[in-house]
Design brief:
Low-confidence stretches: none
Strand content: over 45%
Distance between the termini: 37 Å
Helix content: under 10%
């Protein structure tokens, strides 16, 4: 399984970016998907997740109301629409996928222990 993230860039505070992750998966509906981020000097942070059907989503409190995760299983993509960006959103963003159905889609451990990861895309928000 290979994941390719794109869409990062430099944006001013208050602006928007849309990240996209394309997965080389035969059956994308068999995978829960998530976005993580890692700021310089910080630990990796779980940001948002979407269930394999796309009917359930989860967000950490810091991005609720500003970020929206979505997926298109026909295209094997998962997107992260980021609005009202803040300087503290600056980080490398990673998409991840997991097949372990017995671990909830919004449990980051499921991705970190046995998931698949993309290479990351840089998001920089200037003040």
């Amino acid at each position: 399984v290979q994941l390719q993230a794109s869409g990062g860039g430099l944006v001013q505070a208050g602006g928007s970016l849309r990240l996209s992750c394309t997965a080389s998966i035969r059956t994308s509906s068999a995978y829960d998907m998530a976005w993580f981020r890692q700021a310089p000097g910080a630990e990796r942070e779980f940001v948002a997740a979407i269930s394999r059907s796309g009917s359930n989503t989860y967000y950490v409190d810091s991005v609720k109301g500003r970020f929206t995760i979505s997926r298109d299983n026909a295209k094997n993509t998962v997107d992260l629409q980021m609005n009202s960006l803040k300087p503290e959103d600056t980080a490398v963003y990673y998409c991840a996928a997991k097949t372990t159905a017995w671990v909830s889609y919004f449990n980051p451990a499921g991705y970190e222990r046995s998931g698949y990861w993309g290479q990351g895309t840089q998001v920089t928000v200037s003040s």
